[in-house]
Amino acid sequence: MGSVRWAFRCGSWTPSRSDWLLAARCIQREEKDRIGQFVFAKDAKSAMAGRLLLRKFVCEKMEVPWSEIRLDRSPRGKPYLAAPLKVGLDSEPEQPAWSFNVSHQGDYAVLAADQGRQVGVDIMKTTVPGSSSVPEFFRIMTRQFTAYEWSVIQSAGSEDQQLTAFYRHWALKESFIKAIGTGLGFNLQRVEFHLSSGPLAQGRALRQTKMHLDEEEEEDWVFEESLLDGDHHVAVALGPQDKAGSEALPPPSTFTLLSFSDLIASASPLTEEDSDYWDSFKMKAESPQRQRDTQASK
Fold it and tell me: Residue 42: is its pLDDT beyond 80?
């Protein structure tokens, strides 16, 4: 069965005028308008990369012509293919359905997709809380984790190591929530993660972490974890296998880093060029001042 793991480093992407205007032409008009409303360029670039990742995936892996792709969002915000409703020829044997999800945070946008299983992906960058100490930040977030999870987080070592453990747990929880499409109404304390004993390292993906739901281990759920770099942790949640699929999961794979040329390799423009869109983008600050100060101090 098919499996896709793609990443794009939008934090270091400095689009030219022609690149930005081409990207804007290759997504749906309402998404272009939504991205144009972001205050900061960093957020606009992340959202643009996310939309291009989705369309590239549907075009190249689901074999839907770029111009026919119609993406929409569920009431909880999860992207799905709204049109065409039927993909593939009637004469083809039924294949397990694709599930896909995107996430963007920190310096990356990522996409994960699999056939025959529900997919959720979340990326988190380990960052120091801007307006409070680490202990105060943890106190504010107390209700998001179980007592066991807090014991693991707070016994991780230094404050930096505790923050790394915190964001690792957070990415795992978010990946599960995104896979089931529940959103903010889900009580995160119902879910408890028991981390793999092996350390995470760049260049490999681990699949040993286990999830307990309502204090019972969920053996049908699989979680993949990997590092894009020293600061960015990615978690992929894979739900129980669909009835249409019977193949075993392939070994976990790391994320393939794409260039902008890769993102638009199969793209075709959907709208006319809008030069004002570039002028608006160039007027945006890259990120909030506090984020710029934090990055400058590293």
Answer: yes
Q: Choose among 55, 13, 14, 11: nearest CA to 32.
A: 55
- Judge if pTM exceeds 0.85: yes
- Exposed/middle/buried for residue 294 (C-beta within 10 Å: 0-12, 13-18, 19+): middle
Q: Which two tokens stand for residue 149?
A: 């999870």
CA atoms of 211 and 246, how far apart (whole Å):
22
Residue whose pair of structure tokens reads 């946008």 in the numeric block: 109
Calpha distance 140→151 (Å, rounded): 16
Task: Give the separation between CA 205 and CA 121, rounded to whole angstroms.
Answer: 14
Positive or negative, the Cα torsion across 186, 189, 194, 200? Answer: positive
Dihedral class, residue 287 (left if φ above 0, else alpha if ψ from -120 to 50, else beta) = beta
- Identify which of 116, 115, 204, 213 has the alpha carbon closest to the alpha carbon of residue 172: 213
Helices marked H in 181-297 = 260-263, 275-282, 289-297
